[in-house]
Amino acid sequence: MATDPKTAEPATASTAGVTFECREVSYSYLDRYPALDGVSLTVRPGERVALLGANGCGKSTLLKLLDGLVFPSSGAFTAFGQPVTEDTLEDEQFSQAFRSRVGFVFQNSDAQVFSPNVREEIAFGPLQLGLGADEASARVDEVIAMLGIEALADRAPFQLSGGQKKRVAIASVLVTNPEVLLFDEPTAALDPRSQYWLTDLIEQLGAAGKTIVHATHDLDVLSRIADRCVVFSEEHRIVAEGGPEEVLADRDLLLSVNLIHPGSRR
Ligand SMILES: Nc1ncnc2c1ncn2[C@@H]1O[C@H](COP(=O)(O)OP(=O)(O)O)[C@@H](O)[C@H]1O
Ligand SMILES: [Mg+2]
């Protein structure tokens, strides 16, 4: 049985082979502003899960928690059968393994891109994970070709358009080939062509076997990129889970969580 390096807690049988397990997780910012309240969620390898809910319900906070950027105020979070805590992430080996397995595409690409040029930006992750310069460079070329951003390679990220920055941010995540991808409102603020491109990419990544958790308001593409939807109330709790068709057909549910308005045709 797998054990955690720091606490030597055995992974329970129920969490072994599970990608993410949140058990009754609550989180408040500054101990005052609630963002998650008693959230229990299991994500299995290869699943594509959509987090749905009105602004402020806690989607981004949950994604940050799944990426080990914030930690539960109460409740427990395990990834790949191991507890993820401030303590366990202090273990270099555990932290590197976790970071290489989980990639997070932030909603705001400006918070994600900071290097002087795109090539360096994309190389940052592989170098951080200890890859040699040659291998990092080969990986960078590969992902630049995969995303069709050759023309951006020598440009400064901060000069790029929103859609171009998003591609660079995605390249900087895909370059380390994580098995889990977290996307926070990936298509928000993109033009229709970039939205289409990105939806297609997420669909392809899912088909390639990636585990994908994404937060979205875009109900129109749900059935293409999610197997399961998790619906949050404005009280930061999960109020429903189900397949996209089932959730989209439940007008009362969508109204109650403020995902549609009474005049909406959906
Ligand atoms: N840095 C922060 N400081 C204080 N409160 C925050 C912070 N970030 C988010 N919150 C609060 O936490 C709640 C959940 O926010 P968030 O996870 O961003 O929701 P969503 O992504 O669903 O819009 C909101 O009430 C929000 O105001
Ligand atoms: Mg958000």
Distinct small molecules bound, one entry per kind:
adenosine-5'-diphosphate, magnesium ion
| H and E string | EEEHEEHHEHHHEHEHEEHH
CATH topology category name: Rossmann fold
Number of domains: 1
Biggest sheet: strand arrangement: 6-7-8-3-9-10
Tally of strands: 10
Estimate what percentage of residues fall within beta strands.
Answer: 15-25%
Q: N- to C-terminal separation? A: 48 Å
How many individual helices?
10
* Biggest sheet record: 6 strands, mixed
- Which structural class is indicated by helix and strand composition? alpha/beta
Q: Any idea what the CATH architecture is? A: 3-Layer(aba) Sandwich
**CATH homologous superfamily designation:** P-loop containing nucleotide triphosphate hydrolases
Q: Estimate percent helicity.
A: 25-40%
Task: Give the low-pLDDT segments.
Answer: 1-10
Q: Determine and state the CATH class.
A: Alpha Beta
> What is the rounded Rg?
19 Å
Oligomerization category of the chains in this entry? single chain
Morphology call: globular
Mean pLDDT: 92
